[in-house]
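Sharing a chain and its predicted structure for anyone who wants a worked example. Both blocks are below, sequence first, tokens second.
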Amino acid sequence: MSKLLKTAALAVTLSCAIPVPASTQNYPLAPGNYTEVAMIDVADGGGMQYATYLANEWRKAQEFAKSKGWIVSYAVFNNVNSRPGEPDLYLSVTFPSFPDAAEDEKRDQAYRDFMKRTDTQMIAESGDRAKFRTVLGSFLLRELKFK
């Protein structure tokens, strides 16, 4: 293929790749809230302990965050037909945006004050929950809303 033909082919290809102005695009979806989902494996015999923690402490913390407008909603989902290696529970928290570093520090302090616990106490309590649950990981979703 001659150099002239290659240049012409490239010019045609690039002319097809020219972006259309945003004003003429009509993408039908718009970004919405984020949802973080934690995957939890509950140890055999630990269901009641973990359910009690969720119903008391976890829910209290989520209601506090909701009252402050930091989150929109939260939920616990049971993996009814879990297969080996899959989590037993999914904990979801939905929120509109991520706080910047200063706001994050402010929220952490407000949360510690509300729960009346130090970081050391909260870390120890989290470690104690490891006796009856394992956090397998988490994922972050972003809702796409129809325009």
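Comments welcome. The longest strand covers residues 29-42.
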